[in-house]
Amino acid sequence: MRKMCMRLVMILPLGLFFAVAIFAQTATSRITGTVVDPTGAVIQGAVVIARNEATGVEYKTTTTSAGTYALESLPVGSYTITVEYPGFRKYVGTNNVLTVGAPLVVNVTLEVGSPTEIVEVTGAYERIATTHAMLGGVVTRREVVELPLNGRNPLSLVILEPGLVQRTTGALGSGTHVFGSRDRAHNVTIDGIDANESSVPNPQNNVYRLNPDNVQEYRVVTHNATPEFGRNSGANVNIVTRSGTNEFHGDFFWFHRNTVLNANEWFNNAAGLERPTLLLHQFGASGGGPIVKNKTFFFASWQGNRIKQTMPITQSFGVPLVYTDTLKKQGIFRYFVPDPANPLILDGVIVTRNSPRLVDPITGALRPGVRMCATPTELGCIRTYNIFANDPAGIGPDPLMMEMLAKFPSPNTFNVGDGLNTAGFIWNPPSRFKGPHLMFRVDHKFDENNSVFGRLLLSDWDTREGDFLNARPSIFPGFAPLGEVSRESQGLALNYRRVISSRMVNEFTTGFSRFMFTFLLREANTKFGVEPPPYGQECFGDDSLSLVDTPFCNTPFTRRAVSTIQFIDNLSYMRGSHNVRTGINFRLYRHNDNRGVPGGFNMWPTIIFSQSVRPPTANTAPGVAAGFPGAPGINASDNVNLQQAIVELMGIPARVQQAFVADFKR
Hints:
By secondary structure, the protein is mainly beta.
């Protein structure tokens, strides 16, 4: 039994040692230092008081036998440090700025004299970090308020830290790398509580919709993190929310951006498109102050958002392809037949097949020197193939396909597609953003040994009429978007600081964070009264048509919900010149997915048209001995497009995809 106890005694210190490796990251910091006399001898028992200059709340301790002191788990802010000891003048040091996650060192030399005499010092804390070797920096309250922020997202300032590189947003991941780390290796906390979007943990995502009014400051650790910060290899971002002070402060705000203040984009001007719309309204109020002076404080902020914008479809989707009127309405497929003896040279290039170079890029008219063939055997010109007239069954085009395609616009740009049968349609599709962001915080000090704070975050951020970020806008005017997004989040933090003795302080933090993203796909179509046809599927899985794009998405919604319950405890103990600190951090994490496209497979019935699976030159109809005849002299690549146009216009399906959809609630 005694041997077992000895083993436990040996194991417990090891457990505490390993607990340091997961030291809890919170929104507080600490002030340390050494008190000496003019000869450099340490002073034991000196009374050290740190007074928060904004709230008037005081934190008290005494120096150890080594003359050192530590005030643990303090809220960030500016502090006045007072040191007293009989036989020495009173020391008062003001404007000692404590930032999140960075210990503040204030060393004091007491002068001999009467305690009624006061020595005042301003900002005497160490500017050089001597207690850690972390790389990174603090984005202060002043920077959050005064630096320009597009969209009022304070976390966009993280990219100003050395070592951070941001790529364009077109690639997968967050696009933000820290000293070469993966762009999904970041960790974000708000008041110590997890605030990560786990699938794509971009530090600028701002899942909980913080704004400049409710952020006090945040630290960005980029390298060589201490245990409390070292959860991820990328940026570790520790955010502190604002609290009330001994004075009442509040403001109302309205930020507005308007289309009339913007210039059009160069590419829009070149294509003859109007400038994109931008009508941004961000409005709200914030305020805080004392409930009981020097004891209880509150802070609250609310922001509303009403944003309407349009964006060139090339930036969110690409250039949608449509059939030219000649093919869509008359069934006439045009193809270029080269003349080897007299090659056609356009823009310094020999043309041997269909190409946008054959037509005017804006009107689609044939360019000078390009002509239609006068006879079926002529070379160096454009021949035609009448799909409807060559139907071996004599049925003609499929009425459902013709009805659908007739609703699509005619092309307005001919520098994509093959120029003769398919071309592009460009415009500025719309999108709207709306949703409130709310934060409420209360800080209270029961006595000099016990204090608490609580913070609540609530937000909604909904994207309507088109989801640009995920490449799901409205493809054509008058049609529903391919997708919309609903985002909601809640976050709670509760913190309790207990001074067990002048040498021991414990800080306990608990809370939860939850966000849910719902990606409306088929539902974004049906809410506008449109039932996406199974033969016009465009998003996820295989598209119904491959030559042109359609404005329909028949895929069921996808939802991602992440909840984290967290328990954090930090314990610090000081003896002599030694300061022992340890902590635990439990994160109970749950990630639920409802996917309408598991593994990229569309769960809804979809009709696929493919000339490679069901070529129209083969038997395509009951009672018909042969398929569509070939087109004499056509280029092999153009022939693939001809065959695909036949199966799409004639409604000849290659396969029907059908998945089993179960309702497990019944």
